[in-house]
Amino acid sequence: MVHGVPETIVRVRVPAKINLALGVGPVGDDGFHPLATVFHAISLYDEIIAEPALPGRFLVETTGVPASADLDGDDHLSVRAAKTLAQAYGDTSLGVALSVRKAIPVAGGMAGGSADAAGALVACAELWNLDVSPDDLAEIGATLGSDVPFGLLGGTAVGTGRGERLAPALTRGSYHWVIAFAWGGLSTPEVYARFDRLAADQDIVHPEVPPDVLTALAAGDARALGAALSNDLQAAALDLRPELRATLEAGLELGAVGAVVSGSGPTCAFLAADESAAIDLSTALPQSAACSGVRRVTGPVPGARLVG
Ligand code: C5P
After folding, report:
1. How much distance in Å is there from the Cα of 31 to the middle of ligand 1?
2. Average pLDDT rounded to a whole number, residues 112-117
3. How confident is the model at residue 67 (pLDDT cuts 50, 70, 90)?
4. Which of 24, 85, 99, 276 could form a disulfide with 232 if both were Cys (CB 3.0 to 4.6 A apart)?
5. At what angle do helices 134-144 and 112-127 cross, to 10 degrees?
């Protein structure tokens, strides 16, 4: 306990995302690509625990992944989130000790870093008892990373701009997914750079969300959704990690109704027709695909939320 600071612990659970569609346009002057995407939050969560710390102290400890200076230093997106929130809404007496329990892979294409930032924003707003609206949090989140606003919102949402402009999508029912984790990660800027190189001699148009994805979601039709999954970054991710092609093919051969690289990869997402098909797929996939592990999840789920 920090002397003179009431003992309070705030816990927040925040989901990973996959992209059901990811349309990418030509890179802009700001170095970002215009997107037309459908984000989908799945039941794979990081947990952020926030406890009081001395004024001006912003600490983070990460568990669940191998130790790394990047993950425990001032550059950790959750620390940047806490500091940005304190500067915008708080005063100099604020401080926080964050614990990040990771289940979302680092550099996996599932917005794990953004999830931690979103979780830290919600946790610190509660810990510090700040009068900050969800829209205010999303605005701060967008300055930290393109996927942070979706980490706050969750569910299924159309994302435009850099991915930070969100509109909830009309969806019916719940979908059963099997997620295949890869050995090692992929750098998002590197995947976008490879996208640019592969697209160099093509006429890249401004992206739009494919209507068949939205129609399938509104109908709650897993097979139609599986057929409609798309990702403009997939070719770049496969170019950098050719072995992912075999992973995607293995999942489809084992009965997945759709398979797609998640965001910038290398995690792959497989849609199953129903829960029992997902159980079968999650059992069989590790034997057929070169992945570091699989997880059965459902979506959509809510964004960053207080626990307990
Ligand atoms: O916004 P975020 O920090 O997640 O972006 C990481 C990197 O991914 C950016 O620096 C940029 O290279 C790339 N990016 C992009 N277009 C987007 C989102 C991200 O080129 N819409």
Report:
1. 8
2. 97
3. low
4. 24
5. 140
